[in-house]
Design goal:
The chain is α+β, with helices and mostly antiparallel strands and 358 residues long. It has helices at residues 7-11, 19-33, 43-57, 60-69, 86-104, 106-116, 131-136, 280-285, 344-357; strands at 123-129, 138-149, 163-165, 174-181, 184-191, 200-202, 214-225, 234-237, 253-259, 266-268, 271-278, 287-293, 296-302, 311-314, 330-336. Strand 4 (174-181) and strand 5 (184-191) form a beta hairpin.
Length: 358
Amino acid sequence: MNHKKDYYEILGVPRDATPEQIKKAYRKLVAKYHPDKNKAKDAEQKFKEIQEAYEVLSDPQKRRAYDQYGHAGVEGFYTGQDFGNFETIFDMGDLFSDIFESFFGENFGARRKRRRVTKGDDIRLRITLDFKEANEGTKRKISYQRYIICQKCHGTGSETGKFITCPVCKGTGQINKLQHSFLGQIVFTQTCPKCYGTGQIPEKTCSVCNGTGRVLEKTEITIKIPKGSYDGLILHFPKGGHAGENGGDYGDLYVVLNVKEPKGFTRRKEHLYTTAKIHPALAVLGGKIELSTPYGPIAVEIPKGIQHGEVLRVKDYGAYKLNSDQKGDLFIRTEIHIPTRLSQKEKQAWQKLREIIE
């Protein structure tokens, strides 16, 4: 039997941790185990566990359900939605880099910048789908702007394709900078801001891309929405992002799906949840009701003696599992509905029933 790890243990926080403590622990772990940053074999699995734990513990409703019932209380809650925190997490990296620069000079920042241009930035898009589109799968045309490799200079930034020695650093790629402090004058060695440490600059800067090696262009593509897609699902398209500067490789495109729930239903992964009002007579005697579903009306058998709050399960009337022809189930929570307005005939019938039970 597969036993899931405790969510609090995964994030390394106590069970009474505050939302701020949970968020802080999450950011730290995501930065450490993100697959793009950590190449260890188990990094991707740990990353998924961290995402799942945070999605539950960061939501008050899900956290209460987890604290009360454990993993069974949040079954189907996890959506895999992790994009909402990436910008916040990795912007903090820039903040720390700025702090390092203040102590160690701009050389630190220049090296970081030179590394960053080896690959373009990723692009994140969000699209909204109704339940039917996502559940049955479809195709969607999307357009967005991204930087592509400049065709005039082929990403080199040089219109002639030739380079000359940088006049600022004389080809060394570094310059010395004098700073004054309470200790006196200090000389820092930093990466040349003209050539970014390469020691060379274009013989003639490209007139199209202004030496960056890339230009902004509108891109239009048609993407496939897989069958059984759910809210928060992230579709990954390698090299669909921005081109890097100076001929750097393309980043990736991530499309986050916002999927609307069918009216009157709540969805948790492949399962659907709804409520049905039951007349007291039907609850006592049993019978059938007609219930509207995303697939059309169905007849639901109500067992006699059913109690308020009991849950009925209808197999294969949930959503499709991702990339599968199999469906989840439909769960119906019964609510015994006490009528507030009675006809004369109904009132007489209730009075007779009261005489019997008294």
